[in-house]
Amino acid sequence: MAFSFEKKKKKGVGSSLDDKEMAKRIKQEEARYKDAVDSEIWSCLCFKTEDDRDAFLAKTGLPRRRFITGDELREATKAFVPDAKKRGFARQPKSMAKTPDPLAGVDYSQSLEQTCIDEAMALKAAMMEVKRPDPCNEATDSDIWICVVYPSRAESEQYLDDMNLRKHGDKYIDASAWLKELR
Fold it and tell me: What is the DSSP string of 115-137?
């Protein structure tokens, strides 16, 4: 005799065979997963110089921290909201200089364990060698930044649109260029 699923009688809501409640639970889990892995809830304000960052902080009154919330940024910049909203395209980087392959010198004929160690050491050495270009032609090349974290993707995108910031970037924002508009 084959087993067959039958819809349970209305004993209790939320039973494992209750289709409506199961569908609701699946939607909730999908939304929770999407929120957990969404990387579009943050943006980075990148500055060419420390003076630009300090001027931005002085003008907005934001604290000198690496991370701020979207609500803090919105409150600090509410005096600078543009009169008209403009749709724009995210800026394209001006320079696309290629960096040398840090794994070029790794000998792959060794054991897997030794190869992994050599790769890790080569990557570490390459990261330690990276220096901020002087002069810094693009703010996104800089290590002077403030990360803004929003509660949701919708709020992040809404702020970018409200402040007409898409012309300065959408994930990594050229805050030095934005600062010139705030003056």
Answer: HHHHHHHHHHHHHHH----SS-S
What helix, strand, coil percent values describe the chain, rounded to 5? Answer: 45, 10, 45
The DSSP secondary structure of 60-96, one letter per residue, reads HT--S-SEEEHHHHHHHTGGG--SS----PPPPPS--
Which residues 6+ apart lie within 8 Å of 176 measured at CB? 46, 47, 48, 49, 52, 139
CB 139 within 8 A of CB 44: no
What per-residue confidence (pLDDT) applies to 163? 92
Mean pLDDT by 10 residues, the chain (183 residues): 60 62 89 80 91 94 94 94 71 64 91 94 88 69 88 90 88 90 79
